[in-house]
Fold this sequence. Notes:
This protein has helices at 7-18, 39-54, 66-74, 90-103, and strands at residues 26-30, 58-62, 86-87. It is mainly α.
Amino acid sequence: INGPLFFGATQTFQDTISRLQDKPKVLILRVRHVPFIDATGIYRLKEVIKKFDEQNTSIILSGVNDKVLKDLQKSNIYSVLNKEDLTDNIESASERAKQIIASRK
């Protein structure tokens, strides 16, 4: 994701994610270029996480900056996302994805 995740961008984000043909076991969302997220963006992100969870797909957020992290924590993101699934960088997200896949075998 590149750019702010706010009201105007959230529908496009949700539509794009929903169109995935093959449902992966894990989906890593790189958000290092998301400078901020508003209430609508948080709501849509939570909805996407819940939808994929119902399909047995885990979501990992990679590269969350401090401001976005603070906003996500205020919104109780951990009600829909494991704390371990919020990672600092793509390398740790990849390692986390491997752990999730291994645990499902």
